[in-house]
Amino acid sequence: MPVKLRIILKPDDTRKLILPDGIPKTMEQLTDEVRKVCGLNGEFRLQYQDKDFGDALVNLTSTAELEDLTTIKVIPITDDCSQRFNVTVLEDAQSSSFHSDDTEILSSPSSSVSTRREMWPREFPIPKFSYDTELQLEKGNAEYRSNKTRFKHSTKTKSDILEKVAEEIFKFKAYPSDADFSEVAEALIKKHPCLSEPGSYNGCYGWKQRFKTKMGNYRTQLKGTGCSELLVNSLKSKAPEDALPAKNVKRPKRGEANHIPDIPTGETREKLENERLSLLTEVKKRDNRAVVKDKMAKTFSLRRQEIVEKELRVEELIERWPALFTEDEINAEFLRITTVPLQTRFLASLDEHYSKLIELIRRKGGVLREKTQKILKVLDLSLEVNIKRECLLRCLILYFGEDPDQLIKEYLVVQMDEAETELASSTMAVFVIREEGDSLHPPHDIGIVIEGVKVLNRLPSVAHACAMLFGLIYVLNLSYPGELEHTFDALQKVFMEIEPKKMTRKVLSLSVKL
Known about the structure:
Order of helices and strands: EEHEEEHHHHHHHHHHHHHEHEEEHHH
Radius of gyration: 25 Å
Structural class: alpha+beta
Oligomer: single chain
């Protein structure tokens, strides 16, 4: 059967590969086909979106992993990083716009035992229990399948199950949601059906409640060992006016895997502070990206604790961490926080949903058709991928009944004084400066302003700017702007696929239609 594959060459270059004879049997045949169709020279390797890991990109070692409509990314192999397992960030020597932060393995100097390397999985993996517990469950499952007799577990067995599962939960989250606990309980019953409970509407409600209680006890236990993510919410760590158990609790807001990481083994706050001071000098040097990148990775835990615990203003953060406010470091920091690549996934997801979303917009009538008429006209006149992405983002905002001007603020070069005044009072926005009012011509400048401060400029497109702004919200631990709540919720859960379980009704409706 013919097979179609989506090939990502660069963030702004995605192609369709049609294989009339189906998926090749060997990697060599597939590589030759990609090389021929895409006109590639030099060595490269392939990654594919693995459903077991939430569609994260994983190195492709066998064509058996592929199926129809799979997404593949081409990763160039350079001499200095060829075939190494602990790859940091591959750079394209010819193009500074090509980022491959999605290949960064989270085993940098910033890592510790508590560093999480993946998000909450689609199917929760029930761990192996102690030998005697596994033996009892194996016999219990066999008996349940033959005559539906449920396993009567002892206190010791139940304690072992709760302890091991709590440890596995904490590998992904310190504060699981109610839906997460439901998934865990269902996964336990699926793997060990003999543990299902009579009288429960789904056979595992009692286990769900036990896991909730156990996780509370487990957090208390870890707090005593000095876990930063939990200590920040202890009464001793709070200001006197906030010294209440349920007040000002600093939990992950939007699926952050590494919200407040621990200081790495062998490091101290004093050592990391010295690294931060060294960074202030290193960032001013030319052609010093490798050193800056290494020091930024090393000081991740210190920076994250400052941002979340002290809630510093943007001006203060720029002064203390100037290297953070670059495209490369925003991509790297977002990956460290969420374990998800930022720019590559954001742009690829816009391209993936482009056709269906535009088709959906064109079918709409009434006020939405009237408001999108001008945008769709620009879309029909241009084949430029960045303009198409910008139009898509504007249509997405209007689809939710929100105002694109709240996110993307446009000015002419002759209006610079007016723009400076207005942007100084903006909480969060992408600004576009044009030579003339024609959307089909490249802008004079594109940048981002947060809390009235310009944090980035000279960005290649509005879509890139929106990706960077989305990343900065995570990096700086900010809240979504209230007037664009549905848009950012959709970008997070539908496009970036971060914590997609709990959606608002509008976002869920769009997700189903896409």
